[in-house]
Design a protein that fits this description.
By secondary structure, this protein is mostly helical.
């Protein structure tokens, strides 16, 4: 699939996700059952997330994305690492709830959320690997690139 076909595909998928959001919004307005309503709203929220991810993907396909500075990388790393630990804890908590509950609805919802948390955990680990572990463009690297071949090394006349 070439670049134009990919962009066209992404645009169609964004439109589809937006349609799902619209349909769910129309349907939940009349619903009295909070459980079903919240499940549908959850699906709509996933569709919003999908549309946002597709929009970011579209930008990446269109051209280069901005680099992450060393300072940004360090801040992101701490946040992702904390988030990974919280997702691990959430997986354990929902597993425990599902095992201990006598209520089938509680078990079902706990396991659904647990599966989401497992996916979140895996995605965060991949994000950490993709964004944090590779060499980040540092100020020293920028400085070296700008001045390594000049006789003045950043000051007028050397």
């Amino acid at each position: 699939m070439n670049k134009e076909e990919t962009l066209e595909f992404i645009d169609k998928q964004i439109a589809l996700e937006m349609k799902i959001i619209e349909i769910v919004k129309e349907n939940v307005e009349q619903l009295g059952n909070a459980f079903v309503k919240d499940l549908l709203i959850g699906i709509s929220t996933d569709s919003k997330k999908h549309a946002a991810l597709l929009t970011s993907l579209r930008k990446a396909v269109e051209g280069p994305t901005p680099f992450i500075s060393e300072k940004e990388r360090d801040k992101i790393a701490k946040g992702i690492e904390a988030h990974i630990k919280m997702e691990e804890q959430a997986v354990e908590t929902y597993s425990d709830l599902a095992k201990r509950s006598d209520n089938e609805q509680v078990k079902t919802i706990a396991m659904m959320i647990r599966e989401d948390e497992i996916r979140h955990h895996a995605l965060l680990k991949e994000l950490h690997k993709a964004v944090i572990e590779p060499e980040t463009l540092t100020e020293d690297m920028i400085w070296d690139t700008m001045w390594k071949d000049t006789p003045w090394h950043g000051s007028p006349g050397g």
